[in-house]
């Protein structure tokens, strides 16, 4: 699903945000990225959805390579991913329903199919009754659920979440995390950057720890095996 | 269509910014339009003065009337000539008395020679053409003298050239300033929506999808700004005309449509450029 091969990302003034990182994520896997601020978690996620390109090395996501991908192919890649952020990134002047529908409209989905899909996914995240609410009328946890619904509506193979519980209280955090577990259980791979060690301890998902742009720990004993599976 | 709806959303979300964009386009084009009208009116005034350019060929004494009439017919066939008036001694006297009323008693019958007055077509009233026709008239055997206000025509033509060059240079400068101001305003509108653009891109919107509502918005703002500029120009020229008691000339229908189309084009290109630049950076 994802393969990083000796990936380095340097920024002109900030220096290396990621150094010589290699790892892979298999289909359906749940992976935590953890580490202190500035460790390179968000950089990895940006490289996954190709907002950034590596300075050296190669990132492959769903068969597309950072070396050969063209600018116009990036939207096609992102339609196969779901992306969730700490700050939700919802359009404030649109209802929950419209925010989710928006992700389908950009892909050119027919209007009659949009209504069904949006309704289904809002039900899945437990917000069917809040479909007509605007983001400002929703709690933080509910807003994040709308963002997750938007990420899910295109049936992605991979969901990328950058500190999705960073702005939420404990109760909302537990709710959102449970939702992500259910999504993963249905077959969607998830890569989640988080500072929340409680979440990591409470689950047995694979954890990759970063420090100063380098992978310092990877809990997966099967990491090498996954790499070989991907190579096949 | 989502692009039209998104453009409407954007206008509704930031009505002040939209009004600012439209008024900026309107006032920028108004400045260009007003300047264009000043140039147009100066040109119209100069054309009226130019209509008075004529060459007067005085006929030698005792030239048979038939010969003069024949020669007039020949002169009228010159490509530069619009009209030829044959002025007899009596008509010359009458005209002198009319034009120089205070000296009317000075003039006596047969005091003034007959002449043929040659009026030139528009485009042939420059010093070179006037000299060319005058030289041909001088070559006629029965012509005593040719007068055409050499210095006056040269000055008039110089004034016309200065007005033309100044008009083009200042017009281009005004237009460039207008494009820069409009571009900056549209860029501001694009930056105000940078968050929305990044969200669009994250959910897989293509550059074309992101660009479309901005182009529609830019086009509509341009048309509205152009229309408003035309109204403002019309009101301004009416006020100026009334104040100066001067018969002013306004743009004809084609120029008015071109003006609005220019507004639309500036709005469209300004948006395309601004959003394109923004997309290349993200």
The pLDDT mean of chain A sits at: 91
Distance from first to last alpha carbon of chain B: 26 Å
Sequence of secondary-structure elements of chain B: HHEHEHEHEHHHH
Number of DSSP helices of chain B?
9
Proportion in helices of chain A: 25-40%
Would you mind describing this structure in some detail?
- The complex is a heterodimer of chains A (232) and B (282).
- In chain A, α3 (96-105) crosses α4, α3 packs parallel to α5 and α4 (111-124) crosses α5.
- Chain A has 232 residues and is α/β, with parallel strands linked by helices.
- The longest helix of chain A has 16 residues, at 170-185.
- In chain A, 35% of the residues lie in helices and 26% in strands.
- Chain B has a four-stranded antiparallel sheet.
- Chain B has helices spanning 2-13, 15-50, 65-76, 89-99, 127-138, 150-192, 194-202, 207-244, 253-281, and strands at 54-59, 81-87, 115-120, 143-147.
- Chain B has nine helices and four strands, in the order ααβαβαβαβαααα.
- Chain B has 282 residues and is an alpha+beta fold.
- The relative contact order of chain B is 0.17.
- Chains A and B meet through α2 and α3 of A and α1 and α7 of B.
């Amino acid at each position: 699903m994802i393969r990083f091969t000796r990936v380095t990302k340097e920024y002109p003034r900030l220096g290396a945000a990621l150094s010589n990182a290699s790892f892979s994520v298999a289909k359906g896997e749940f992976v935590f990225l953890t580490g202190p601020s500035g460790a390179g978690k968000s950089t990895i996620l940006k490289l996954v959805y190709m907002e950034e390109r590596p300075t050296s090395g190669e990132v492959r996501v769903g068969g597309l390579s950072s070396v050969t991908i063209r600018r116009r192919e990036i939207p096609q890649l992102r339609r196969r991913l779901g992306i969730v952020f700490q700050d939700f990134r919802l359009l404030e002047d649109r209802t929950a329903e419209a925010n989710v529908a928006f992700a389908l409209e950009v892909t050119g989905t027919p209007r009659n199919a949009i209504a069904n899909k949006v309704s289904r996914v809002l039900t899945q995240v437990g917000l069917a009754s809040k479909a007509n609410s605007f983001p400002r009328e929703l709690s933080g946890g509910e807003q994040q659920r709308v963002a997750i619904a938007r990420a899910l509506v295109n049936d992605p193979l991979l969901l990328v979440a950058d500190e999705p519980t960073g702005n939420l209280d404990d109760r909302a955090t537990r709710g959102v995390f449970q939702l992500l577990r259910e999504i993963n259980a249905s077959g969607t791979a998830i890569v989640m950057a988080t500072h929340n060690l409680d979440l990591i301890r409470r689950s047995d998902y694979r954890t990759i720890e970063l420090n100063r742009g380098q992978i310092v720990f990877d809990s997966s004993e099967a990491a090498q095996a996954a790499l070989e599976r991907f190579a096949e | 269509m989502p692009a039209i709806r998104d453009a409407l959303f954007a206008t509704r979300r930031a009505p002040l910014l939209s009004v600012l964009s439209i008024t900026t386009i309107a006032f920028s084009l108004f400045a260009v339009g007003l300047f264009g009208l000043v140039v147009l009116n100066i040109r119209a005034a100069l054309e009226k003065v130019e209509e008075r350019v004529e060459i007067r060929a005085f006929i030698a004494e005792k030239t048979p009337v038939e010969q003069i009439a024949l020669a007039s017919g020949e002169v009228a066939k010159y490509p530069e000539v619009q009209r030829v008036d044959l002025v007899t001694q009596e008509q010359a006297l009458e005209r002198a008395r009319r034009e120089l009323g205070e000296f009317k008693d000075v003039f006596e019958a047969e005091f003034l020679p007959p002449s043929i007055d040659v009026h030139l077509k528009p485009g042939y009233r420059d010093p070179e053409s006037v000299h060319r026709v005058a030289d041909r008239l001088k070559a006629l055997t029965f012509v005593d003298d040719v007068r055409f206000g050499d210095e006056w025509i040269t000055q008039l033509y110089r004034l016309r050239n200065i007005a033309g060059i100044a008009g083009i240079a200042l017009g281009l400068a005004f237009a460039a300033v207008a494009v820069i101001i409009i571009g900056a305003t549209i860029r501001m509108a694009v930056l105000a929506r940078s968050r929305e653009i990044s969200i669009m891109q994250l959910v897989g919107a293509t550059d074309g999808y992101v660009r479309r509502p901005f182009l529609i918005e830019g086009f509509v703002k341009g048309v509205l700004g152009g229309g408003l500029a035309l109204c403002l120009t019309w009101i301004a020229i009416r006020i100026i005309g009334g104040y100066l008691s001067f018969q002013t000339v306004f743009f004809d229908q084609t120029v008015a449509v071109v003006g609005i189309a220019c507004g639309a084009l500036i709005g469209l290109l300004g948006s395309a450029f601004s959003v394109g630049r923004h997309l290349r950076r993200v």
